[in-house]
Amino acid sequence: MTKEQPLSLIVMMPVLDDWVSAAELLRRVDNAIAGSGYIATILFIDDGSVQQCDPSDFQSDFATIRKIQILRLRRNLGTQRAIAIGLAHIQNSMSCDAVLIMDADGEDTPSGAAQLLRAYSEGHGPDVIFAERTRRSETLLFRFFYHLYRVLHWWLTGVSVKVGNFSILPSESLHTLVSMSELWNHYAAAVFRSRIPFRMVPIPRGTRITGTSRMNFWSLVTHGLSAISVFADIVGARLLIASLCTSLLSALGILAVIVIRVFTDRAVPGWATYTTGVLAIIMIQFITIGASFTFFVLSNRTNLGFLPFRDYSLFIANVVDIYTPSDFKYVGSELDLFAAVHNWKAYWSSQARPFLIGDILEVGAGIGSNTQLLDPGGTGRSVCLEPDPQLASRLKQHIEAGTSRRTYESICGTLSSIVGQQFDTIVYIDVLEHIEHDREELQLAASRLRPGGHIIVMSPAHQRLFTPFDAEVGHFRRYNRAMLRAISPPDLRLARVRYLDVIGLSASTVNLLFLRQSMPTKEQLRVWDSLIPITRVLDRLLRYSVGKSIIAVWQKPA
Predict the structure, then answer these.
(1) pLDDT of 183-192, one tens digit each?
(2) Range of the domain at 481
(3) What is d(CA 441, CA 448) in angstroms, rounded to the nearest whole number?
(4) I need a labelling partner for 476 at 20 to 30 A (CA). Which of 154, 235, 274, 389 fits?
(5) Where are the alpha helices (DSSP H) in 74-109?
(6) What is the pLDDT of residues 204-246, one digit of tens each?
(7) Angle at the Cα of 273 from the Cα atoms of 272 and 278, rounded to 5 degrees
Protein backbone atom coordinates (compact mmCIF):
# COMPACT_ATOMS: atom_id res chain seq x y z
CA MET A 1 0.00 0.00 0.00
CA THR A 2 1.44 3.34 -1.04
CA LYS A 3 0.29 6.90 -1.11
CA GLU A 4 0.53 6.82 -4.89
CA GLN A 5 -1.81 3.86 -5.06
CA PRO A 6 -4.24 4.02 -2.12
CA LEU A 7 -6.55 1.10 -1.53
CA SER A 8 -10.14 1.58 -2.63
CA LEU A 9 -12.69 1.00 0.14
CA ILE A 10 -16.48 0.88 -0.01
CA VAL A 11 -18.19 1.52 3.32
CA MET A 12 -21.66 -0.02 3.17
CA MET A 13 -24.26 1.06 5.73
CA PRO A 14 -27.90 -0.11 5.85
CA VAL A 15 -30.08 2.82 6.95
CA LEU A 16 -33.69 3.09 8.11
CA ASP A 17 -34.46 6.76 8.86
CA ASP A 18 -31.19 7.26 10.82
CA TRP A 19 -29.93 10.02 8.49
CA VAL A 20 -28.87 12.41 11.27
CA SER A 21 -26.78 9.69 12.94
CA ALA A 22 -25.39 8.60 9.57
CA ALA A 23 -24.20 12.12 8.69
CA GLU A 24 -22.41 12.55 12.02
CA LEU A 25 -20.97 9.03 11.88
CA LEU A 26 -19.46 9.70 8.43
CA ARG A 27 -17.53 12.70 9.73
CA ARG A 28 -16.20 10.63 12.63
CA VAL A 29 -15.27 7.70 10.39
CA ASP A 30 -13.49 10.04 7.96
CA ASN A 31 -11.42 11.46 10.82
CA ALA A 32 -10.70 7.98 12.23
CA ILE A 33 -9.36 6.50 8.97
CA ALA A 34 -7.63 9.63 7.62
CA GLY A 35 -4.04 8.82 6.73
CA SER A 36 -4.72 5.08 6.63
CA GLY A 37 -3.94 4.81 2.91
CA TYR A 38 -7.55 4.35 1.78
CA ILE A 39 -9.93 6.31 -0.40
CA ALA A 40 -13.53 5.59 0.50
CA THR A 41 -16.89 5.47 -1.24
CA ILE A 42 -19.90 5.44 1.07
CA LEU A 43 -22.87 3.34 -0.03
CA PHE A 44 -26.01 3.79 2.06
CA ILE A 45 -28.65 1.07 1.59
CA ASP A 46 -31.92 2.93 2.18
CA ASP A 47 -34.13 0.16 3.56
CA GLY A 48 -37.47 1.83 2.88
CA SER A 49 -36.93 4.98 4.97
CA VAL A 50 -39.95 7.23 5.59
CA GLN A 51 -37.79 10.24 6.48
CA GLN A 52 -36.09 11.85 3.51
CA CYS A 53 -32.33 12.26 3.41
CA ASP A 54 -31.10 15.85 3.22
CA PRO A 55 -27.98 15.83 0.98
CA SER A 56 -26.78 19.08 2.58
CA ASP A 57 -26.15 17.15 5.83
CA PHE A 58 -23.46 15.14 4.02
CA GLN A 59 -21.49 18.00 2.49
CA SER A 60 -18.12 18.35 4.21
CA ASP A 61 -14.42 18.66 3.52
CA PHE A 62 -13.70 14.95 3.85
CA ALA A 63 -10.14 13.65 3.96
CA THR A 64 -10.73 10.12 2.62
CA ILE A 65 -14.35 10.01 1.39
CA ARG A 66 -14.59 10.59 -2.36
CA LYS A 67 -18.22 9.76 -3.05
CA ILE A 68 -21.47 9.15 -1.17
CA GLN A 69 -24.28 7.20 -2.82
CA ILE A 70 -27.72 6.08 -1.67
CA LEU A 71 -29.05 2.80 -3.04
CA ARG A 72 -32.81 3.02 -2.47
CA LEU A 73 -34.81 -0.18 -2.06
CA ARG A 74 -38.42 -0.44 -3.22
CA ARG A 75 -39.57 -1.60 0.23
CA ASN A 76 -38.32 -2.36 3.70
CA LEU A 77 -36.60 -5.75 3.72
CA GLY A 78 -34.67 -5.72 6.99
CA THR A 79 -30.97 -5.25 7.65
CA GLN A 80 -29.78 -8.67 6.53
CA ARG A 81 -31.52 -8.57 3.18
CA ALA A 82 -30.45 -4.97 2.64
CA ILE A 83 -26.86 -6.14 3.14
CA ALA A 84 -27.36 -8.96 0.62
CA ILE A 85 -28.67 -6.55 -2.02
CA GLY A 86 -25.88 -4.06 -1.29
CA LEU A 87 -23.16 -6.70 -1.70
CA ALA A 88 -24.68 -7.94 -4.96
CA HIS A 89 -24.83 -4.36 -6.25
CA ILE A 90 -21.18 -3.78 -5.35
CA GLN A 91 -20.12 -7.02 -7.03
CA ASN A 92 -22.02 -6.16 -10.19
CA SER A 93 -21.63 -2.38 -10.43
CA MET A 94 -18.66 -1.11 -8.42
CA SER A 95 -14.93 -1.69 -8.09
CA CYS A 96 -12.97 -1.79 -4.82
CA ASP A 97 -10.30 -3.61 -2.83
CA ALA A 98 -12.49 -4.24 0.23
CA VAL A 99 -15.97 -3.61 1.66
CA LEU A 100 -16.47 -2.36 5.21
CA ILE A 101 -19.93 -3.23 6.54
CA MET A 102 -21.19 -1.27 9.55
CA ASP A 103 -24.37 0.12 11.07
CA ALA A 104 -25.18 3.79 10.51
CA ASP A 105 -26.43 4.51 14.04
CA GLY A 106 -23.04 4.73 15.81
CA GLU A 107 -23.08 1.37 17.60
CA ASP A 108 -20.36 0.27 15.19
CA THR A 109 -17.70 2.78 16.17
CA PRO A 110 -15.26 4.78 13.99
CA SER A 111 -12.37 3.56 16.15
CA GLY A 112 -13.55 0.01 15.53
CA ALA A 113 -13.60 0.70 11.80
CA ALA A 114 -10.00 1.90 12.03
CA GLN A 115 -9.06 -1.30 13.90
CA LEU A 116 -10.62 -3.47 11.19
CA LEU A 117 -8.80 -1.54 8.47
CA ARG A 118 -5.48 -1.92 10.27
CA ALA A 119 -6.05 -5.66 10.65
CA TYR A 120 -6.89 -5.94 6.95
CA SER A 121 -3.87 -3.84 5.88
CA GLU A 122 -1.50 -5.92 8.00
CA GLY A 123 -2.68 -9.24 6.60
CA HIS A 124 -4.14 -8.12 3.24
CA GLY A 125 -5.24 -11.70 2.65
CA PRO A 126 -8.50 -13.41 1.76
CA ASP A 127 -9.81 -13.44 5.36
CA VAL A 128 -13.05 -11.73 6.28
CA ILE A 129 -12.36 -9.82 9.51
CA PHE A 130 -15.24 -9.51 12.01
CA ALA A 131 -15.55 -7.34 15.10
CA GLU A 132 -15.89 -9.69 18.05
CA ARG A 133 -18.20 -8.07 20.58
CA THR A 134 -16.50 -7.67 23.98
CA ARG A 135 -19.12 -5.41 25.56
CA ARG A 136 -22.81 -4.70 24.89
CA SER A 137 -24.87 -1.70 25.99
CA GLU A 138 -28.44 -3.10 25.96
CA THR A 139 -30.68 -3.74 28.96
CA LEU A 140 -30.09 -6.66 31.32
CA LEU A 141 -33.24 -8.46 30.09
CA PHE A 142 -32.17 -8.09 26.45
CA ARG A 143 -28.70 -9.42 27.24
CA PHE A 144 -30.23 -12.42 29.06
CA PHE A 145 -32.29 -13.41 26.04
CA TYR A 146 -29.30 -12.73 23.76
CA HIS A 147 -27.14 -15.16 25.73
CA LEU A 148 -30.02 -17.67 25.67
CA TYR A 149 -30.09 -17.30 21.89
CA ARG A 150 -26.32 -17.89 21.70
CA VAL A 151 -26.67 -21.15 23.65
CA LEU A 152 -29.56 -22.32 21.43
CA HIS A 153 -27.64 -21.37 18.28
CA TRP A 154 -24.58 -23.33 19.40
CA TRP A 155 -26.68 -26.39 20.34
CA LEU A 156 -28.54 -26.43 17.02
CA THR A 157 -25.71 -25.51 14.64
CA GLY A 158 -22.44 -26.16 16.44
CA VAL A 159 -21.37 -22.57 15.69
CA SER A 160 -20.75 -20.08 18.49
CA VAL A 161 -22.22 -16.58 17.99
CA LYS A 162 -19.65 -13.89 18.71
CA VAL A 163 -20.03 -11.43 15.84
CA GLY A 164 -22.56 -9.23 14.07
CA ASN A 165 -22.44 -7.45 10.72
CA PHE A 166 -19.50 -5.17 11.58
CA SER A 167 -16.71 -6.52 9.37
CA ILE A 168 -14.38 -5.93 6.46
CA LEU A 169 -14.76 -8.15 3.41
CA PRO A 170 -12.06 -8.53 0.70
CA SER A 171 -13.47 -7.94 -2.77
CA GLU A 172 -12.33 -11.37 -4.00
CA SER A 173 -14.80 -12.99 -1.59
CA LEU A 174 -17.79 -11.13 -2.99
CA HIS A 175 -18.40 -13.45 -5.94
CA THR A 176 -18.71 -16.40 -3.54
CA LEU A 177 -21.11 -14.72 -1.14
CA VAL A 178 -23.48 -13.24 -3.72
CA SER A 179 -23.97 -16.68 -5.26
CA MET A 180 -25.20 -18.10 -1.92
CA SER A 181 -28.94 -18.08 -1.25
CA GLU A 182 -28.07 -18.18 2.48
CA LEU A 183 -26.87 -14.56 2.24
CA TRP A 184 -30.51 -13.51 1.82
CA ASN A 185 -31.17 -14.60 5.42
CA HIS A 186 -28.04 -13.67 7.35
CA TYR A 187 -24.71 -12.15 6.29
CA ALA A 188 -22.38 -13.39 9.08
CA ALA A 189 -23.88 -16.87 9.08
CA ALA A 190 -23.48 -17.04 5.29
CA VAL A 191 -19.77 -16.21 5.65
CA PHE A 192 -19.36 -19.00 8.21
CA ARG A 193 -21.27 -21.40 5.98
CA SER A 194 -19.29 -20.46 2.85
CA ARG A 195 -16.01 -21.64 4.41
CA ILE A 196 -14.39 -18.36 3.42
CA PRO A 197 -11.53 -17.93 5.93
CA PHE A 198 -12.31 -15.42 8.67
CA ARG A 199 -10.88 -14.09 11.88
CA MET A 200 -12.06 -11.83 14.67
CA VAL A 201 -10.77 -8.66 16.29
CA PRO A 202 -12.08 -7.80 19.80
CA ILE A 203 -13.98 -4.48 19.51
CA PRO A 204 -16.47 -3.15 22.09
CA ARG A 205 -19.91 -2.11 20.87
CA GLY A 206 -20.65 1.60 20.98
CA THR A 207 -23.83 3.55 21.70
CA ARG A 208 -26.27 5.17 19.30
CA ILE A 209 -25.56 8.74 18.27
CA THR A 210 -29.25 9.69 18.33
CA GLY A 211 -32.57 7.95 18.93
CA THR A 212 -33.25 4.52 20.39
CA SER A 213 -32.55 1.04 19.09
CA ARG A 214 -35.27 -0.74 17.09
CA MET A 215 -33.97 -4.13 18.21
CA ASN A 216 -36.49 -5.58 20.69
CA PHE A 217 -37.38 -9.07 21.87
CA TRP A 218 -39.35 -9.96 18.73
CA SER A 219 -36.66 -8.51 16.47
CA LEU A 220 -34.11 -10.66 18.30
CA VAL A 221 -36.26 -13.77 17.74
CA THR A 222 -36.59 -13.01 14.02
CA HIS A 223 -32.88 -12.23 13.73
CA GLY A 224 -31.97 -15.45 15.55
CA LEU A 225 -34.21 -17.60 13.39
CA SER A 226 -32.71 -16.03 10.24
CA ALA A 227 -29.20 -16.90 11.42
CA ILE A 228 -30.17 -20.45 12.36
CA SER A 229 -31.97 -20.96 9.02
CA VAL A 230 -28.63 -20.64 7.18
CA PHE A 231 -27.63 -23.94 8.83
CA ALA A 232 -31.02 -25.55 8.15
CA ASP A 233 -29.57 -28.86 6.96
CA ILE A 234 -27.30 -29.12 10.02
CA VAL A 235 -30.19 -28.18 12.32
CA GLY A 236 -32.41 -30.70 10.54
CA ALA A 237 -29.79 -33.45 10.87
CA ARG A 238 -29.27 -32.73 14.59
CA LEU A 239 -33.00 -32.66 15.31
CA LEU A 240 -33.44 -35.84 13.27
CA ILE A 241 -30.83 -37.59 15.43
CA ALA A 242 -32.44 -36.18 18.57
CA SER A 243 -35.87 -37.37 17.39
CA LEU A 244 -34.58 -40.84 16.59
CA CYS A 245 -32.84 -41.04 19.97
CA THR A 246 -36.02 -39.98 21.75
CA SER A 247 -38.02 -42.50 19.75
CA LEU A 248 -35.50 -45.20 20.67
CA LEU A 249 -35.77 -44.28 24.36
CA SER A 250 -39.57 -44.43 24.08
CA ALA A 251 -39.32 -47.90 22.50
CA LEU A 252 -36.99 -49.04 25.29
CA GLY A 253 -39.48 -47.60 27.80
CA ILE A 254 -42.31 -49.61 26.24
CA LEU A 255 -40.13 -52.75 26.33
CA ALA A 256 -39.34 -52.10 30.00
CA VAL A 257 -43.05 -51.73 30.82
CA ILE A 258 -43.85 -55.03 29.08
CA VAL A 259 -41.05 -56.81 30.97
CA ILE A 260 -42.25 -55.43 34.32
CA ARG A 261 -45.86 -56.26 33.53
CA VAL A 262 -45.25 -59.83 32.36
CA PHE A 263 -42.33 -61.03 34.43
CA THR A 264 -42.77 -59.27 37.78
CA ASP A 265 -45.51 -58.78 40.33
CA ARG A 266 -44.72 -55.06 40.86
CA ALA A 267 -47.19 -53.77 38.30
CA VAL A 268 -49.99 -51.48 39.50
CA PRO A 269 -53.37 -52.25 37.82
CA GLY A 270 -53.90 -50.05 34.75
CA TRP A 271 -50.48 -48.36 34.83
CA ALA A 272 -48.92 -50.51 32.12
CA THR A 273 -51.59 -49.68 29.57
CA TYR A 274 -51.44 -45.97 30.40
CA THR A 275 -47.62 -45.78 30.33
CA THR A 276 -47.32 -47.82 27.14
CA GLY A 277 -49.87 -45.58 25.41
CA VAL A 278 -48.05 -42.39 26.42
CA LEU A 279 -44.68 -43.74 25.34
CA ALA A 280 -46.14 -45.01 22.05
CA ILE A 281 -47.58 -41.56 21.31
CA ILE A 282 -44.22 -39.95 22.10
CA MET A 283 -42.40 -42.44 19.87
CA ILE A 284 -44.81 -41.96 16.95
CA GLN A 285 -44.60 -38.18 17.27
CA PHE A 286 -40.83 -38.13 17.22
CA ILE A 287 -40.69 -40.60 14.33
CA THR A 288 -43.00 -38.26 12.42
CA ILE A 289 -40.84 -35.27 13.35
CA GLY A 290 -37.74 -37.13 12.23
CA ALA A 291 -39.31 -38.06 8.89
CA SER A 292 -40.41 -34.45 8.38
CA PHE A 293 -36.92 -33.14 9.03
CA THR A 294 -35.51 -35.72 6.62
CA PHE A 295 -37.76 -34.57 3.78
CA PHE A 296 -37.13 -30.92 4.70
CA VAL A 297 -33.35 -31.32 4.53
CA LEU A 298 -33.51 -33.26 1.24
CA SER A 299 -35.84 -30.74 -0.40
CA ASN A 300 -33.67 -27.80 0.67
CA ARG A 301 -30.61 -29.33 -0.96
CA THR A 302 -32.26 -29.00 -4.39
CA ASN A 303 -33.94 -25.61 -3.81
CA LEU A 304 -31.79 -22.61 -4.79
CA GLY A 305 -34.34 -20.02 -3.68
CA PHE A 306 -33.26 -16.39 -3.85
CA LEU A 307 -29.83 -15.85 -5.44
CA PRO A 308 -28.54 -12.35 -4.65
CA PHE A 309 -26.44 -11.87 -7.80
CA ARG A 310 -29.38 -12.94 -9.98
CA ASP A 311 -32.35 -11.37 -8.23
CA TYR A 312 -31.06 -8.32 -6.34
CA SER A 313 -32.06 -5.73 -8.97
CA LEU A 314 -35.74 -6.57 -8.47
CA PHE A 315 -35.68 -4.66 -5.19
CA ILE A 316 -33.66 -1.61 -6.24
CA ALA A 317 -35.55 1.60 -6.96
CA ASN A 318 -32.57 3.78 -7.91
CA VAL A 319 -29.06 4.90 -7.00
CA VAL A 320 -28.46 8.55 -6.15
CA ASP A 321 -25.16 10.41 -5.77
CA ILE A 322 -25.37 12.90 -2.89
CA TYR A 323 -21.70 13.87 -2.58
CA THR A 324 -18.58 14.15 -4.69
CA PRO A 325 -15.71 16.41 -3.60
CA SER A 326 -16.49 19.88 -4.97
CA ASP A 327 -18.40 17.93 -7.67
CA PHE A 328 -16.64 16.07 -10.47
CA LYS A 329 -15.26 18.37 -13.13
CA TYR A 330 -14.00 17.28 -16.51
CA VAL A 331 -10.38 18.46 -16.88
CA GLY A 332 -10.42 18.76 -20.66
CA SER A 333 -11.25 21.93 -22.57
CA GLU A 334 -11.51 20.52 -26.09
CA LEU A 335 -15.24 19.70 -26.32
CA ASP A 336 -16.30 23.03 -27.82
CA LEU A 337 -13.17 23.12 -29.97
CA PHE A 338 -13.94 19.75 -31.59
CA ALA A 339 -17.70 20.30 -31.84
CA ALA A 340 -17.36 21.81 -35.34
CA VAL A 341 -15.36 19.00 -37.03
CA HIS A 342 -18.41 17.84 -38.98
CA ASN A 343 -16.63 15.71 -41.60
CA TRP A 344 -14.83 13.70 -38.94
CA LYS A 345 -18.00 13.18 -36.93
CA ALA A 346 -19.87 12.03 -40.02
CA TYR A 347 -17.03 9.59 -40.79
CA TRP A 348 -16.76 7.82 -37.45
CA SER A 349 -20.54 7.80 -36.96
CA SER A 350 -20.92 6.00 -40.32
CA GLN A 351 -18.65 3.28 -38.89
CA ALA A 352 -20.76 2.99 -35.75
CA ARG A 353 -24.22 3.27 -37.31
CA PRO A 354 -24.63 -0.40 -38.41
CA PHE A 355 -24.38 -1.42 -34.76
CA LEU A 356 -26.71 1.22 -33.28
CA ILE A 357 -29.92 -0.58 -32.37
CA GLY A 358 -32.76 -0.27 -29.89
CA ASP A 359 -32.29 1.53 -26.59
CA ILE A 360 -28.95 3.37 -26.47
CA LEU A 361 -26.78 4.40 -23.52
CA GLU A 362 -24.14 7.05 -24.28
CA VAL A 363 -21.50 7.12 -21.54
CA GLY A 364 -19.65 10.41 -21.08
CA ALA A 365 -21.94 12.36 -23.39
CA GLY A 366 -20.25 15.69 -22.60
CA ILE A 367 -22.18 18.62 -24.07
CA GLY A 368 -24.17 16.37 -26.42
CA SER A 369 -22.28 17.18 -29.63
CA ASN A 370 -22.27 13.48 -30.61
CA THR A 371 -25.71 12.55 -29.33
CA GLN A 372 -27.68 13.23 -32.51
CA LEU A 373 -25.10 11.30 -34.53
CA LEU A 374 -25.97 8.22 -32.46
CA ASP A 375 -29.64 8.36 -33.43
CA PRO A 376 -30.38 5.22 -35.49
CA GLY A 377 -33.76 6.59 -36.54
CA GLY A 378 -37.21 5.53 -35.51
CA THR A 379 -38.50 5.36 -31.97
CA GLY A 380 -36.62 4.15 -28.93
CA ARG A 381 -34.88 5.44 -25.85
CA SER A 382 -31.50 7.16 -25.52
CA VAL A 383 -29.92 7.77 -22.10
CA CYS A 384 -27.00 10.21 -21.95
CA LEU A 385 -24.63 9.93 -18.97
CA GLU A 386 -22.31 12.75 -17.95
CA PRO A 387 -20.60 13.00 -14.52
CA ASP A 388 -19.67 16.72 -14.77
CA PRO A 389 -22.68 18.74 -13.48
CA GLN A 390 -21.89 21.77 -15.68
CA LEU A 391 -21.54 19.68 -18.81
CA ALA A 392 -24.65 17.68 -17.84
CA SER A 393 -26.61 20.93 -17.64
CA ARG A 394 -25.55 21.88 -21.18
CA LEU A 395 -26.26 18.31 -22.31
CA LYS A 396 -29.82 18.53 -20.98
CA GLN A 397 -30.43 21.78 -22.83
CA HIS A 398 -29.01 20.28 -26.02
CA ILE A 399 -31.22 17.20 -26.05
CA GLU A 400 -34.33 19.19 -25.06
CA ALA A 401 -33.81 21.29 -28.19
CA GLY A 402 -33.70 18.19 -30.42
CA THR A 403 -36.49 17.08 -32.77
CA SER A 404 -35.90 13.32 -32.84
CA ARG A 405 -38.77 10.87 -32.36
CA ARG A 406 -36.69 9.04 -29.77
CA THR A 407 -37.11 9.59 -26.04
CA TYR A 408 -34.00 11.25 -24.63
CA GLU A 409 -32.95 11.35 -20.97
CA SER A 410 -29.87 12.96 -19.41
CA ILE A 411 -28.39 11.70 -16.13
CA CYS A 412 -25.59 13.34 -14.18
CA GLY A 413 -23.60 10.30 -13.09
CA THR A 414 -21.55 7.31 -14.15
CA LEU A 415 -22.41 3.81 -15.30
CA SER A 416 -22.79 2.68 -11.68
CA SER A 417 -25.71 5.13 -11.42
CA ILE A 418 -27.68 2.97 -13.86
CA VAL A 419 -29.24 0.09 -11.92
CA GLY A 420 -31.82 -2.42 -13.07
CA GLN A 421 -31.79 -1.11 -16.66
CA GLN A 422 -30.71 -2.90 -19.83
CA PHE A 423 -29.73 -1.43 -23.19
CA ASP A 424 -29.26 -2.68 -26.74
CA THR A 425 -26.26 -0.42 -27.44
CA ILE A 426 -23.74 1.17 -25.07
CA VAL A 427 -21.43 3.76 -26.59
CA TYR A 428 -18.11 5.28 -25.48
CA ILE A 429 -17.01 7.99 -27.93
CA ASP A 430 -13.58 9.31 -26.85
CA VAL A 431 -14.42 8.35 -23.26
CA LEU A 432 -12.83 5.02 -22.28
CA GLU A 433 -9.32 6.50 -22.33
CA HIS A 434 -10.44 8.88 -19.55
CA ILE A 435 -11.42 5.97 -17.26
CA GLU A 436 -8.62 4.58 -15.11
CA HIS A 437 -10.14 1.10 -14.61
CA ASP A 438 -11.18 0.43 -18.20
CA ARG A 439 -11.46 -3.36 -17.91
CA GLU A 440 -13.88 -3.11 -14.98
CA GLU A 441 -15.84 -0.41 -16.83
CA LEU A 442 -16.40 -2.67 -19.86
CA GLN A 443 -17.38 -5.60 -17.65
CA LEU A 444 -19.94 -3.38 -15.94
CA ALA A 445 -21.20 -2.23 -19.34
CA ALA A 446 -21.56 -5.87 -20.42
CA SER A 447 -23.83 -6.52 -17.42
CA ARG A 448 -26.09 -3.67 -18.62
CA LEU A 449 -26.29 -5.05 -22.17
CA ARG A 450 -29.20 -7.06 -23.54
CA PRO A 451 -28.54 -10.28 -25.49
CA GLY A 452 -27.62 -9.45 -29.08
CA GLY A 453 -26.59 -5.92 -28.09
CA HIS A 454 -23.35 -4.03 -28.83
CA ILE A 455 -20.72 -2.05 -26.96
CA ILE A 456 -19.09 0.54 -29.24
CA VAL A 457 -15.81 2.17 -28.23
CA MET A 458 -13.93 4.83 -30.16
CA SER A 459 -10.65 6.09 -28.71
CA PRO A 460 -7.33 7.64 -29.75
CA ALA A 461 -4.88 5.04 -31.04
CA HIS A 462 -1.23 4.15 -30.36
CA GLN A 463 0.34 4.78 -26.97
CA ARG A 464 3.56 5.96 -28.62
CA LEU A 465 1.60 9.00 -29.84
CA PHE A 466 0.75 10.06 -26.29
CA THR A 467 1.45 13.82 -26.25
CA PRO A 468 0.92 16.81 -23.95
CA PHE A 469 -2.51 17.10 -25.59
CA ASP A 470 -3.50 13.71 -24.12
CA ALA A 471 -2.32 14.75 -20.68
CA GLU A 472 -4.13 18.10 -21.03
CA VAL A 473 -7.50 16.45 -21.63
CA GLY A 474 -7.15 13.74 -18.97
CA HIS A 475 -6.26 10.64 -20.97
CA PHE A 476 -4.84 7.64 -19.12
CA ARG A 477 -3.77 5.89 -22.31
CA ARG A 478 -4.18 5.47 -26.07
CA TYR A 479 -5.23 2.07 -27.44
CA ASN A 480 -4.19 -0.47 -30.02
CA ARG A 481 -5.88 -3.68 -31.11
CA ALA A 482 -4.04 -5.86 -28.59
CA MET A 483 -4.97 -3.58 -25.70
CA LEU A 484 -8.66 -3.66 -26.60
CA ARG A 485 -8.65 -7.43 -26.98
CA ALA A 486 -7.00 -7.70 -23.56
CA ILE A 487 -9.83 -5.82 -21.82
CA SER A 488 -12.66 -7.57 -23.69
CA PRO A 489 -15.52 -8.66 -21.38
CA PRO A 490 -15.36 -12.46 -21.15
CA ASP A 491 -18.94 -13.06 -22.32
CA LEU A 492 -18.78 -10.78 -25.35
CA ARG A 493 -17.43 -11.34 -28.86
CA LEU A 494 -15.16 -8.72 -30.42
CA ALA A 495 -17.00 -8.20 -33.71
CA ARG A 496 -14.93 -5.39 -35.25
CA VAL A 497 -11.69 -3.48 -34.64
CA ARG A 498 -10.64 -0.78 -37.14
CA TYR A 499 -8.13 2.04 -37.23
CA LEU A 500 -9.46 5.31 -38.69
CA ASP A 501 -7.87 8.49 -40.09
CA VAL A 502 -4.48 7.78 -41.64
CA ILE A 503 -3.97 11.50 -42.41
CA GLY A 504 -4.68 12.34 -38.77
CA LEU A 505 -2.03 9.79 -37.81
CA SER A 506 0.52 11.70 -39.89
CA ALA A 507 -0.53 15.00 -38.29
CA SER A 508 -0.25 13.51 -34.78
CA THR A 509 3.25 12.19 -35.60
CA VAL A 510 4.35 15.65 -36.75
CA ASN A 511 2.98 17.19 -33.55
CA LEU A 512 4.77 14.56 -31.44
CA LEU A 513 8.14 15.06 -33.15
CA PHE A 514 8.16 18.78 -33.87
CA LEU A 515 5.25 20.96 -32.71
CA ARG A 516 4.56 19.39 -29.28
CA GLN A 517 1.34 21.38 -28.92
CA SER A 518 -0.94 20.63 -25.96
CA MET A 519 -3.98 21.73 -28.00
CA PRO A 520 -4.54 22.19 -31.76
CA THR A 521 -5.68 25.55 -33.11
CA LYS A 522 -9.04 26.10 -34.79
CA GLU A 523 -7.30 26.60 -38.14
CA GLN A 524 -5.40 23.34 -37.79
CA LEU A 525 -8.64 21.51 -36.99
CA ARG A 526 -10.39 23.15 -39.97
CA VAL A 527 -7.63 21.98 -42.37
CA TRP A 528 -7.60 18.47 -40.90
CA ASP A 529 -11.39 18.19 -41.09
CA SER A 530 -11.37 19.29 -44.74
CA LEU A 531 -9.09 16.32 -45.54
CA ILE A 532 -11.42 13.70 -44.04
CA PRO A 533 -13.03 12.79 -47.43
CA ILE A 534 -9.54 11.84 -48.65
CA THR A 535 -8.90 9.95 -45.40
CA ARG A 536 -12.04 7.88 -45.93
CA VAL A 537 -10.73 6.68 -49.31
CA LEU A 538 -7.23 5.98 -48.00
CA ASP A 539 -8.53 4.07 -44.97
CA ARG A 540 -10.54 1.75 -47.22
CA LEU A 541 -7.55 1.18 -49.48
CA LEU A 542 -5.37 0.36 -46.46
CA ARG A 543 -8.12 -1.91 -45.07
CA TYR A 544 -8.33 0.18 -41.88
CA SER A 545 -4.90 -1.03 -40.76
CA VAL A 546 -3.48 2.36 -39.65
CA GLY A 547 -4.94 5.53 -38.20
CA LYS A 548 -4.92 7.94 -35.28
CA SER A 549 -8.21 6.59 -33.86
CA ILE A 550 -9.49 3.10 -33.23
CA ILE A 551 -13.07 1.87 -33.15
CA ALA A 552 -14.09 -1.46 -31.61
CA VAL A 553 -17.44 -3.22 -31.38
CA TRP A 554 -18.31 -6.06 -29.01
CA GLN A 555 -21.48 -8.14 -29.33
CA LYS A 556 -23.30 -10.05 -26.61
CA PRO A 557 -24.55 -13.48 -27.74
CA ALA A 558 -28.29 -13.54 -28.38
Answers:
(1) 988 898 889 8
(2) 332-555
(3) 11
(4) 389
(5) 79-93
(6) 888 888 877 666 666 666 766 777 777 776 777 777 777 778 8
(7) 100
